[in-house]
Design goal:
- The protein is an all-alpha fold.
- The protein folds into two domains: 12-193 and 319-396, no CATH class; 198-310, no CATH class.
- Helices cover 76% and strands 0% of the residues.
- The chain is built from 15 helices and no strands.
- It has helices spanning 12-25, 30-44, 50-62, 67-106, 116-140, 144-159, 165-180, 198-222, 225-239, 248-255, 263-273, 283-322, 326-355, 359-373, 379-396.
- α2 (30-44) crosses α4, α8 (198-222) packs antiparallel against α12 and α9 packs across α12 (283-322).
- The chain is globular, with a radius of gyration of 21 Å.
Length: 397
């Protein structure tokens, strides 16, 4: 039975509309996306509460694949079931996927140079991530023990920037939480009703591993370019931890040696991927388009995101069951503090180091932060303001 304070359900259509807007305005990479999501889904629309959001971020940081896209799928699933998850993925992914496919179709071999307005979008990401870290720290790292975990997580994330360090940090924080916070009374999670039970979720998790094992075999025996394309991008999406830029060397190893693209074409597409909003994994749309046309773009995009979809929808019912247990709640107490630290580390690198190059950049970021935190303006207004400010600064500098 759904409790009175349980998260409300909605329609896939409203999820799609909201996700499209985020897909059009969420610049700055996966960590910035989490800031945009928090502002939209937690603060403005109140589809989920702060604790549920932090728990979801922790879960998706632990799973392989693009964390921000998985958080969006999970929120869509919680809000409107299976079709809500699909709507959330389509809305957030489609704008950048189409833009990058068009870039591959009409601007082959063209390099992409950063402009003033594009730099302004990176500055906007600084404001959005800083606001998210600030808000989450007040909720999940407000006392001495959790603040210590958050600071330690940030230091480790910056000093040991390996692919698996983030997973190790979350596991370590979970163990620390289980040991030190087992007797600390915490807020009970808001009840969530899911349209999938654990049996159905288990089928999706099995399918994830079956495809991971069978696709290379099918590729070897069919000698089909389409099977090879699907296998390459499915494997890249399934085996990468950290998401975003971490997937790039995997993709390069799949498409350049095979002769599907030249190294110059790959780099041109990577440059364009920095200029569009939405998930960096839509770089697959560019690569598929440049290799095999529109059909290739569709196959590559579906293949690289499918593992993430299977994993997050398959994991949610088990996660929803676990988070009600006191011992797991204690672990989440530490994990959520570590997530704050990981976001804090990402605020410095790559967000800050890539965007703030001068006092003028810092002033623009401060003004954008004020719009978001003090004046409570929506993220798309902050994005427009920062793009205009970046263009203006490029003219006067």
């Amino acid at each position: 039975m759904i409790q009175e304070n349980a998260l409300k359900r909605g329609s896939a259509w409203e999820v799609l509309k909201t996700a499209v807007r985020l897909g059009l305005t969420s610049f700055g990479g996966p960590i910035a996306h989490l800031g945009y999501f928090r502002e939209e889904y937690v603060n403005r629309r109140k589809w989920i509460d702060e604790k549920t959001y932090a728990d979801l971020v922790a879960l998706c940081q632990f799973l392989p694949g693009p964390a921000s896209s998985q958080v969006g799928m999970a929120i869509g699933f919680i809000r409107a079931g299976f079709w809500g998850a699909i709507a959330a993925w389509i809305g957030f992914t489609l704008p950048s996927a189409v833009a990058l496919a068009l870039f591959a179709g009409f601007l082959k071999g063209t390099s992409f140079r950063e402009t003033g307005w594009l730099h302004g979008l990176l500055v906007a990401a600084v404001a959005v991530v800083a606001h998210a870290v600030w808000g989450m720290a007040k909720n999940f790292a407000s006392d001495r023990p959790r603040a210590t975990i958050a600071i330690t997580a940030a230091i480790l994330a910056l000093m040991i920037p390996s692919v698996f360090s983030q997973v190790g940090i979350i596991v370590g924080a979970g163990i620390a939480g289980w040991i030190f916070f087992r007797n600390v009374p915490g807020a009970q999670p808001v009840p969530i009703t899911l349209s999938f039970n654990k049996k159905a979720a288990g089928v999706l998790l099995i399918l994830f591993f079956v495809l991971l094992g069978l696709l290379p075999v099918a590729r070897k025996f069919t000698d089909s370019n389409w099977v090879a394309l699907f296998d390459s991008f499915y494997r890249s999406g399934a085996l990468v931890f950290g998401g975003g830029h971490v997937v790039l060397p995997l993709l390069q190893a799949e498409v350049v040696p095979s002769g599907w693209l030249t190294a110059d074409q790959f780099l041109a597409g990577y440059g364009a991927a920095q200029a569009v909003p939405g998930p960096l994994f839509t770089f697959a749309s560019y690569l598929g388009m440049a290799s095999f046309g529109w059909k290739g773009a569709v196959v590559a995009t579906l293949a690289i995101f499918l593992p993430s979809f299977l994993l997050i929808i398959g994991a949610l019912p088990f996660w929803n069951w676990l988070r009600d247990h006191p011992r797991f709640q204690a672990a989440l107490y530490g994990i959520n503090a570590a997530v704050v630290g990981i976001l804090l580390a990402a605020l410095y690198h790559p967000v800050w180091t890539k965007a703030i190059n001068s006092p003028a950049d810092f002033c623009l970021a401060l003004a954008a932060f004020g719009l978001l935190a003090v004046w409570k303006r929506t993220p798309w207004i902050v994005v427009g303001f920062s793009a205009a400010g970046g263009a203006l600064l490029s003219l006067v500098s």
